[in-house]
Every structure is written in structure tokens, then in C-alpha cells.
């Protein structure tokens, strides 16, 4: 674990209005609403954020793949499937060299919004099987006050 990782974690906590951690562990977990986000340095000199969204069988695979389309957003979350558990993993990363309070906040915000969107789509697909729905997707409830460490 590098000094840059420790500094980035402290910067993120500051940006979120959280007390600085007494000790920065190799993997940090934050809860944002229903999502648990894990943070670690992987690969070296990069801050990786990831969250498990549940079993791949609970999702429309085409919607998951659409999430992985090209984007101008460098921290855009990507979707993968964990080969051991079969769970959908949502992840993004940024170089620690460029990591500062607002960029870290933005990285976590993008992950939270993608989680809300993908799990909201999952719920909507389940509801559509029973009846047609014209409701729009809900906005992300990303807020620094919703964090638990």
C-alpha cells in the first residue's frame, strides 16, 4: 500500500465530510445507500473502487453490456462478472497521481449512480414482466450524509 493511496483515502474522507480514519487499511469499505463500495490500490498507483451488484441471472445481460459502451468519462464505471461467484461487479479506477478530493468524490459518485441505474433497471425489468411501467428511473441518492464506514 503506497503513501499516495493513504493520502487519497484521507482526501476522499475529507471530501465526504467524514472523520479521518485512524488507520488506512488495504481495502476500505464504504456504504452509500444500499451499495457497499470497496476501495483499494489495484494495480499499483491506481485507486480501484468496486461493488458487487448480485447474481448475473438477476440482470438483462444486454443492459449490462450497454453500460460498457464508450464514454468521454475516464472514471466511468465498467461491468464485469466475477468468475467465482457469478456476481455482477461494477468497478472504476483512476491513477493515484491525479487523485484529489473532488476527483475521488466524482469517482465514487459515478459508481453510486451506475449502481442505482443498473439495479433500478433490474427492478424495472422484473416489474415489467408483471405489467408495463412508464416510470422514469430514480435519481441517484448519492450524498455524503449517507455514508457509513
Automatic annotation (TrEMBL):
Keywords: Plasmid
A biological-process GO annotation: protein secretion by the type III secretion system
Domain of life: Bacteria
InterPro entries hit by this protein: T3SS_chp_SycE (IPR005416), Tir_chaperone (IPR010261)
Cited Pfam families: CesT
Name listed for the protein in its UniProt record: CesT family type III secretion system chaperone
Amino acid at each position: 500500500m503506497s503513501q499516495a493511496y493513504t493520502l487519497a483515502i484521507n482526501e476522499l474522507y475529507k471530501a465526504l465530510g467524514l472523520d479521518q480514519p485512524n488507520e488506512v487499511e488495504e481495502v476500505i469499505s464504504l456504504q452509500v445507500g444500499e451499495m457497499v463500495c470497496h476501495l483499494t490500490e489495484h494495480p499499483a498507483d491506481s485507486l480501484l473502487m468496486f461493488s458487487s451488484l448480485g447474481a448475473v441471472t438477476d440482470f438483462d445481460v444486454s443492459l449490462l453490456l450497454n453500460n460498457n459502451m464508450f464514454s468521454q468519462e475516464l472514471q466511468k464505471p465498467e461491468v464485469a462478472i466475477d468468475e467465482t461467484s457469478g456476481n455482477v461487479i461494477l468497478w472504476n479506477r483512476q491513477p493515484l497521481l491525479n487523485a484529489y478530493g473532488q476527483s475521488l468524490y466524482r469517482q465514487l459518485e459515478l459508481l453510486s449512480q451506475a449502481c442505482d441505474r443498473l439495479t433500478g433497471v433490474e427492478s424495472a425489468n422484473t416489474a415489467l414482466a408483471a405489467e408495463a411501467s412508464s416510470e422514469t428511473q430514480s435519481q441517484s441518492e448519492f450524498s455524503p450524509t449517507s455514508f457509513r464506514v
